[in-house]
Amino acid sequence: VILVGVTAIVALIGLSEWRRQAVGKRKMKLAEQILASFYEARDVFVWVRSPAAFGGEGETRNAQGEDEQVRRQRNVYFVPIERMQKHSELFAKLQSQRYAFLALFGTEAVEPFNLLRKAQVQISVSPQTLISMVGRRSARNANEQLWDKCEADIWDGLHGENDPITALVTEAICLVESLCRPVLLQSRPESNVEKFLMRWLDG
């Protein structure tokens, strides 16, 4: 009778342990995927904001009826948008991973995604603002501070060491690392079944 009771208890504990381990494996796999995606996004932001432009970049913009000089300058500001578009699949994947990460890691898990999204929006909006002002001298003269800010958003290094886009991305990476690394580095814990059997055998 005792043996039957012990067997039943072990079976129940085993089922609970299986569920716990299944969740643990899911968390570990997702943590690895999320961390890799964030590191990839960090590299994309560095490339997108590089002032160096290659031949043909920016020319996918619709520029019908524009003066040649205006067209060239607007195309230069279109380069970050064009580069971001080439990595749209990565940012779409990050958004799809966001909800699974939130479900397994809790409400604080959403903040790294918000920070990354904020940087992405700034890099998208700032060049559009510059493009709208190119060719309108009065608009630029009246908004010099905005012009400088937008250029600093899209080109790395113009803010010096106090670059707000880099700060956003760095903070996002630090937060996601603080959530993922403990899961990835944890050693295999002693199972509940093992603990129960050891206590039972020890009497």
Topology (SSEs and partners):
Layout: H1 2-48, H2 68-86, H3 88-105, H4 110-133, H5 137-142, H6 144-154, H7 164-185, H8 192-201
Descriptive key words:
8 helices; mainly alpha; about 0% strand; about 200 residues; single chain; about 75% helix
Q: Give the number of helices.
A: 8
Q: How many distinct beta strands? A: 0
Rg, alpha carbons: 26 Å
Structure class: mainly alpha
Explained architecture:
The chain has helices spanning 2-48, 68-86, 88-105, 110-133, 137-142, 144-154, 164-185, 192-201. Helix content is 77%, strand content 0%. The chain contains 8 helices and no strands. The model is unreliable at 15-20 and 187-198 (pLDDT under 50). The chain is mainly α and 203 residues long.
Gist of the model:
77% of the residues lie in helices and 0% in strands.
